[in-house]
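Chapter summary example.
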Amino acid sequence: MSHNNDFFDDFWKATEKFFGPGSPFAPIVPHNDTGDGYSFQIEVPGIKKENLKVEVNGENITVSGKRGDQELKRIFDIPLGADPLSIDAHLEDGVLELRFKKQKIAGPRLIPIK
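The structure predicted for these 114 residues follows.
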């Protein structure tokens, strides 16, 4: 498993070297449609819950954290149709799972003309 972590560490280091520290560039993180919402998982190996922060700003989610002297900051798009006010975050075994409920969309209705 440490080889996997080394791979991701090397990838992020190369990304930051090319795009600059704290760059909003991030690979696409696929989200799953759970029926009543969306979820996606982000690997954050070695980062403790108290060292992680999840922020919603407009149509983006910023995940930042610290592991030793290394800092992580990634910006992701909120899935289309997700309610940004309903976000729930859960960390287990080095994987941060973010869950959103789907936005309630009003059904068709007749608008009276005045």
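To summarize the output: DSSP finds one helix and seven strands in the chain.
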